[in-house]
Amino acid sequence: MTTTDGAGGWCVRLALIIVLIIGLGCGRAWALPPMQPIDLARGGDGVVLTDALWLHEETPGQPLTIAEVLQSTDWEATSPENLSSAYRPTTVWLLGTIRNSGETPLSRWLVLLPWQLRDVQLFLIDPVTGAVSTHQRAGLGVAREALEVAKIQPTFAIELAPGQTQTLLLRVQDRSFLGLTVRSVEPEAFVAKEGARRDLYLLFAGFVLAIMVVLLAWGDWRFTLASVWLGCIILFELSYEIPLVLSLWPGLRPHMISLFTISGALTIAVFALASLVFLEIYRNRAWRILYGILIGGILVAAFATPLTDETQLTRWVAVRLTLVIALLWPISVLFAPRRQGPYQWGVLILLVGCWLQIMVRIFTSTGLMPRIHDDVLVMLYRLVPLGLILGVIVLDRLARLSRERARERELRAIEEAARQALIDRQQEENLRLAAAVEQQTRTLREATRRAEESSEAKSAFLSTVSHELRAPLHDILGYAQLLARQIPPQAQEQLAVIQDGGNKLLHLINDILAFSRGEARPIILVPAPLSLRRLAAHLGEVCRPLAARGDNRLVTRVELGETEWVMGDEPRLTQILRNLLENACKFTQRGRIELAITLTDPWRTPDAAPSVWFCVSDTGPGIPESEQDTIFQPFKRLDRYQSVPGLGLGLAIAQQLATAMGGKIQVRSSQGEHHGSTFSFTLRLPSCDPPERQWDAEQRPSGYRGRRRTLLIADDFPTSRQFLADCCTAWGFRVILAVDGADALARFRAADPAFDAALVDQFMPHLDGWGFLRGVREADQGSELPVILISAAPQQRPEGYPESVQFDQFAIKPLSESRLAVILGDVLGLDWEYAEESSPQDPASPVALPASCTAAERAHFLEMLSIGQLKAIQQWAQEMAERDPEHRAAWSEIMHLCAVIDLPGLQRLARAAGEG
Q1: How far apart are the C-alpha atoms of 440 and 437, rounded to whole Å?
Q2: What phi and psi values does residue 134 have, to the nearest 5 degrees?
Q3: Per-residue pLDDT for 521 more than 60?
Q4: Mind telling me which residue stretches traverse the membrane in this protein (predicted)?
Q5: Nearest-angstrom CA–CA distance, 79 and 83
Q6: Cα 715 from Cα 739, distance rounded (Å)
Q7: What pLDDT does 26 receive?
Q8: Which of 61, 84, 439, 764 is the most exposed place for a label (fewest CB within 10 A)?
Q9: What confidence category does residue 90 fall into, taking pLDDT thresholds of 50, 70 and 90?
Q10: What are φ and ψ of residue 833, in 5° steps?
């Protein structure tokens, strides 16, 4: 029993000794300096923890473990001196205690500055057990995938439970760092602040780049030098002070040290070169050679930085050479040419400011001055070089201009002295000069008078051009209409080519004249009853062949409710929509084009004018957003569409006319396949009742009922006069022709019985249309005679002409046969008779689908024709010809109709197929 107790006593004593040894060891391991716990729950956001931490610096080449660091007694309070290590590889440990005194879990980030730190490790140690609860790594030397928090700055996530206390241990290893700072931030607030800061820096970078582009575009080599200078500074700032480059291109992490070293070297090199130029130090050969050697050396050292990444030797050399240049710069300024004038002194003062900023940068990079971490001060600091460089450029430019003006004044003084001497010697020369001055004065007065008459001359020129261009087209298109009734079907296609070409030329002339007239004077609108449904149908019929050439489908959509007739300028509105539709047809291939006319206020009051929305949309390639504001400029065409025919006036004219009507064309476009563009505008068009007489364009008059009327036609162009006569004679009128206004007035006075109406041109020799109208209205028997003005130019009322004297109707050339019939019907109140229209095809051999075509194939043909797929119809006809060679002639005729885009022929074929 005694033996057992003795053995047990020894075991107890041995255990106590072991516990005591462990306790002593632990007591020694945690014999740490006195530390006040940092309460993260009360600190708020952005609290600097550095001042509350202790620092221990490793001996170079002797790395320590966590246990060895905790056992060390060589801890010291942090200070600006031991928190910086300029261009010297150093490893320091930071120690502190953090606590969460709150009642809720706490989530914080620890952010270390400067952001260029290479390797930072975080250890959170339980103060009771001594166990490491958290271990994280960050820094430029750590792969992005291994980061706990993917931020550019070394950032660590900390989670503390309510009342929890942890020992914070940081290991910072880098080849060089300045102003080491540790901050506690709230994650969400930090992310928001970083995002706002990044946006601000992007805006700043964009602003500087815009200035660089402007300087480069100036074309002056001094401005180019300033642009390069700004580029080097912004590259250095965005890669060194501001981690914007790294945030945009994360793959540059391993090369950031080399990047900002090279950019900094380029900055000081360009500064030295700018000093040589703007201060004219290059005139001194010794300084020119010295600067060249120093600039070459700093550039070589900077670009060799990646080769000595471990030792930082070349980086150290580059910084020292930068310091040499900065120290020699004030001395070199003393050897510059003497400053003359305030502008040159201003350049010197601004360059001194640049030099001072470089010195500040050198002092902060070598640890001689503390770094700035305040965002506002940092941004102001970034703006300083921008203002200095721009100031240098402006003042240098002003200095050069001042020197040029001084030289000009010297030259003028010399010239003045010579002139005065010449005046003194020769009095007659003085008289000659006085006469020359008087002559110059008269010349200037005459030039002023001509300038005042410029606008009126332009208007008169436009009227003349309008008349001279439209008059021949009046004859071409008019006689083409008459020939269409007489020539055989085989020649109809050739005549259609003439008509199509003439209409295109007319449309082009109208565009040019409309644009020129809109610039010369305000656009005058002529409202008249207008059917929006008929307008949409007419535009669809006119533009569908053009759409079919690009294998497009053109559809019209009209949603007007009970509103159909409105008061509007139909020719101007047609010109706007046609220009928009033609653009859509030209730039869209194998897509869909839509013309939509809808009401935007169907619930308006009955007295309110309807608001009508006009929209042309397509599925074309779209317009870049950067060019959407410029497409309405005259003669503006996108570069990639230069091969497409056109003058670039269509959209400018459309916008001009829409503005005159009280609207504005808006464009929405997105690029990509089947995205397209949408052009739309809204107009207030008052409702109106339909006119009593409505013309059906599909019917052609053959005559009129009632007594035979007599018309007087006056036009100095024989062909135009004869076209009107041929049309009217074919309808049963008796026609009397006059070669000018005087001849027409004489025939009017001698007529018995009186004429029923007169058709006169505006501009004629001897007496124009206005003079004829005055003579008719002043005659007793002519006060009620309808006088119709038919002119190739807009109405130009002579100055002082009575406002009460008006033409009964006005028509612009070229005048179609149907339009002439409408005018005569309105003026004379005619009841027209219409002849049955015969098909242009030979009745003996009408075009029809072969009998072998099934009902399904006929339906397929009608469906393709309804959406305008002419190429698909042509391919279908070719396949049917191979399957049905017996009717190959009929299928070939259908392919021919598609090839020449004969929509009327295909529509007749469709009607025959539907009846069959």
Answers
A1: 5
A2: -145, 135
A3: no
A4: 12-32, 200-219, 256-279, 285-305, 317-337, 343-364, 376-395
A5: 6
A6: 6
A7: 41
A8: 61
A9: confident
A10: -110, 140
Contacts of residue 550, defined as CB under 8 A and 6 or more positions apart, other chains included, come to 585, 586, 588, 589, 590, 591
Pairing of strands 710-714, 677-684: unpaired
- Average pLDDT (422-446) is 83
DSSP state of 596: E
pLDDT > 70? residue 849: yes
Q: Coil, strand, or helix at residue 736?
A: strand
Buried b (16+ CB within 10 A) or exposed e, 302-329: bbbbeeeeeebebbbbbbbbbbebbeeb
User: Which residue has 């090279």 as its token pair?
Assistant: 262
- Determine the 3-state secondary structure of 901 from DSSP: coil
Cα–Cα distances in angstroms (integers) from residue 547 to residues 573, 620, 791, in the given order: 20, 12, 33
Confidence of residue 735 (pLDDT cuts 50, 70, 90): very high
Pick from 6-20, 396-410, 553-567, 641-655 the range whose average pLDDT is largest: 553-567
Q: Is the peptide bond before 753 cis (omega within 30 degrees of 0)?
A: yes
Q: Out of 409-418, 832-841, 863-872, pick the least confident.
A: 832-841
Residues whose CB falls within 8 Å of the CB of residue 322, separated by 6 or more in sequence, listed in order: 264, 265, 268, 298, 358, 362
Using alpha carbons, select from 230, 206, 233, 204 the residue that is nearest to residue 391. Answer: 230
- Alpha-carbon distances, residue 552 vs 243, 476, 584, 625, 867 (angstroms): 52, 31, 10, 25, 8
Judge contact between 668 and 599, C-beta under 8 A.
no
The CATH class for the domain spanning 35-185 reads mainly beta
Do you find a cis peptide bond into 114, omega within 30 degrees of 0? yes
Return the domain boundaries, the chain: 1-31, 35-185, 193-401, 522-684, 855-915
Distance between CA atoms of 561 and 556, rounded to whole angstroms?
15
Amino acid at 716: D
Q: Edge-to-edge strand order for the sheet containing 611-618?
A: 553-559, 592-599, 611-618, 677-684, 666-669
What confidence tier does 122 reach under pLDDT thresholds 50, 70, 90? very high
Task: Compute the Cα dihedral for 445, 450, 451, 452 and give only its sign.
Answer: positive
Nearest to 161 by CA among 205, 212, 104: 104
Q: What is the share, in percent, of the chain residues with pLDDT greater than 90?
A: 10
Average pLDDT (331-352) is 77
870 vs 884: CA distance, rounded Å: 20
Give me the residues paired with residue 791 across strands: 812
- Percent of the chain past pLDDT 70, that is, above it, reads 75
Superfamily of domain 522-684: Histidine kinase-like ATPase, C-terminal domain (3.30.565.10)
SS3 sequence of 460-472: HHHHHHHHHHHHH
pTM for the full model? 0.40
Judge whether 52 and 96 are in contact, CB under 8 Å. Answer: yes
Determine the pLDDT at residue 683. Answer: 92
Contact predicate 474/814, CB 8 Å? yes
Contacts with 800 (C-beta within 8 Å, 6 or more apart), sequence order? none
**Taking Cα atoms as reference points, which of 317, 360, 341 lies closest to residue 404?**
341
Per-residue pLDDT tens digits for 737-749: 999 999 999 999 8
| Contact of 557 with 517, CB cutoff 8 Å | no
The answer for residues whose C-beta is within 8 angstroms of residue 310's C-beta and 6 or more apart is 175
Tokens 């049905």, located at residue: 884
Q: Token pair for residue 162? A: 């309510």
Biggest distance spanned by C-alpha atoms of the chain: 169
Among candidate residues 462, 474, 471, the one with its CA nearest the CA of residue 512: 462
The residues with which 556 forms a beta bridge, in sequence order, are 595
Does 425 or 258 have the greater pLDDT score? 425
**pLDDT score at 484:** 66
Q: At a CB cut-off of 8 Å and minimum separation 6, what does 451 contact?
A: none
Query: In the predicted model, is pLDDT for residue 697 greater than 70?
Result: no
507 or 906: which leads in pLDDT:
906
Confidence of residue 789 (pLDDT cuts 50, 70, 90): very high
